[in-house]
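The data are quoted verbatim here:
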Amino acid sequence: REKMSDEEILVSPIQLGKNSCLYFEGLECDAFCKDKILYRVLRNVNSQLLVVRPDLNVAAFEHLTDQEMKSGNGMLFSIHCYNSTTPGAGTPVAFSVQVEDKSYYMCCEEECGKMIIQFKEGEVPEKFPGESNVIFFKKRFTSSSSRAFKFEYSLEQGMFLAFEEEGSLRKLILKKLSREDEVDETMKIS
């Protein structure tokens, strides 16, 4: 038994999971622990690759030549997967990418009353002590799609990574779904 504030909480260990994580009955997890890292390129519904260009402060989906793809610069993402006690929310993930010799991680910031995607220089933390503007929940795009996903922002339910045409760019943005059962192809990432 553990005394916390004025109430007593019974803590019973029930399972030893991967990476020696001990799971308890009756407690909510208030932190994400890193599980594994996947290395992937991210494509939209038009088969364009997501490319990060920190010098221009933009991440956009682009058609690339084979030569451009070979460099991998700004397009090979590390998808940091975390353990969670709420599997129904999806797999918690964070994104980072190498551009030349520097690492950048993706986060969401409010700017002029609008949530925007930014890539900041640095490494993704090993552990988050609770909520974070870096975490997204990876979910299947539709129940029948096993290779396509959508990524919901952890701090705002119904807000997903998507692309939006801005001039000649298909820029990475956060987009709010109007209904939970809505299928929006701009959010489909494979």
